[in-house]
Amino acid sequence: MGLPTYPESYWLATASMPSYGKLEEDLSTEVAVIGGGIAGITTACLLAREGKRVVLATADKLLNGTTGYTTAKLTAQHDLIYDEYIGHFGEEKARLYYEANMEGLEFVRRLVSEAGIDCDFAEEDAWIYTNSGSKLEAVEKEYEAYKRLGIPGSLEKSIPLTVPARLAVVMRGQARFHPVPYLRHLTEEFVRLGGRIFEDTTIDKVEENGDTVTVTSADGRTITCGDAVSCSHFPIPDSGFYFARLHCESSYAIAVRAPGELPRGMYISAEKPNRSVRTITYGGEKLLLLGGESHKVGQKEPGFVHYEALEDFAKKEFGATDIVYRWSAQDFEATDKLPYIGHVSEGKKHIYVATGFRKWGMTTSVVAARLLTDLILGRDNRYAELYSPSRFHADPDVGTLAKENLNVAGQLISGKLEWVRRKPEDLGPDEGGHVRVNGRKAGAYRSPEGELFVVDTTCRHMGCEVAWNDGDRTWDCPCHGSRYTFRGEVIEGPAKKDLERLS
Ligand SMILES: Cc1cc2nc3c(=O)[nH]c(=O)nc-3n(C[C@H](O)[C@H](O)[C@H](O)COP(=O)(O)OP(=O)(O)OC[C@H]3O[C@@H](n4cnc5c(N)ncnc54)[C@H](O)[C@@H]3O)c2cc1C
Ligand code: FES
């Protein structure tokens, strides 16, 4: 068994999206939606259903962000969270969070069934399990929270997997699917309703002036509109200090062939390094999808070791014979662990944001699309206050905020001080890392064919030193999660400009 050289997402390898041209003229519309992931596509489609004229603009291609690299569990079980939410926000808000996400799941279930979308949708229970004494109490408390909130579930002393587990909390009636055919359907509906899509269109600025919003692409093209929605993962504009309120986590996945019956149900471990398990049964192919190894982007040894750890888990626990696909992606998390959905900041009446999905955006994106549609149409929505980006919770926001920003400051300084001896000539085929060029620290990668790519490793967002990720051959920023290809091209914001190429 050997891992393929380059990461490839199962979802994008087995189903495709329609493609669209880039924005090449100035235009005007009622609403501009930025971002071609599940949040942007769903929001654009719901607004078009309401009769709005909508333009969707995205950098790169549709689904090339996190949505194309997800594990696609559709669930309101977002790790061990309900006991914590009750403690921080109270029972009513914790219940609202559950209900919002179950409505998101129900939206997908109904659409799949009514439109007959062939997207491997299957109803399954979701399990959080632990084999560690230190997490037993947390799992028990989570089950107590389920009971208080009326969440259908149970506490189990074993799980139907060969993976060792002493206790598990189960949430009933959840689901999983293949996001690409599902989102292809929504995209085609959007276009049928008159929506326009522009790919390869990086948005540089979103500015509000009275009742007019101007969205400007990196090429200088403008979309003039009444409202703009940023579903671009990192908000544009960052007028709400999101760089200080969000952090970005990487996570890894592999799809494997394994002997015997594939397990039913979706599983995630309570302890770190986390492990996630579900099956794929799409197009006659049966695979086991294993994920986990989360860490902050650009920190804690990014890269290949994480794929190897998942591979070991696949072999040991499931007798995996083949790693067929492997991929990684990242998602943002707010300091108080609740997504930000609503007006981007208090002063902006016509610019909206949806971000901070904490690696649980499949249902939350529907919550976001509905909430943003209601806000734009001036309708009430019972989740508006819960998700409002202007919310302020003294606990735990302030402490976490201070810790996050100390972490960023630490990364900024330590990256710059590190001394490197290695020169570009020292790199072997398919090897990358920091090197010294003309007395100055730089980053280099040598392709398997021997071509050398040298970049300035100063992140184009706020100047932190990017780290080499040998698993994905990317440069990852430890401060706010920007990622770049080995050529220096941006693949994840907040940075909007490529790393400077030195050769
Ligand atoms: C490994 C992994 C596993 C996961 N598993 C699950 C799961 O099982 N269940 C679940 O619910 N969630 C899961 N998630 C989370 C979920 O996949 C994400 O929350 C969701 O896909 C985010 O969707 P999005 O539309 O907000 O972002 P994205 O899909 O990242 O879309 C953002 C879009 O914005 C575009 N963009 C960015 N900047 C600009 C710009 N300046 N101009 C124009 N466009 C721009 C990007 O190109 C991209 O198209 C997982 C996440 C990871 C990383
Ligand atoms: S992402 Fe902010 S400095 Fe790199």
TrEMBL record:
Protein name: FAD-dependent oxidoreductase
Signal peptide coordinates: none
Rieske domain sequence ranges: 419-503
Top-level lineage group: Bacteria
Organism (species): Cohnella xylanilytica
Entry GO MF terms: 2 iron, 2 sulfur cluster binding; metal ion binding; monooxygenase activity; oxidoreductase activity, acting on paired donors, with incorporation or reduction of molecular oxygen
Pfam family of the protein (one): Rieske
Keywords in alphabetical order: 2Fe-2S, Disulfide bond, Iron, Iron-sulfur, Metal-binding
GO cellular component terms given for this protein: cytoplasm; membrane
PROSITE patterns per the UniProt record, alphabetical: RIESKE (PS51296)
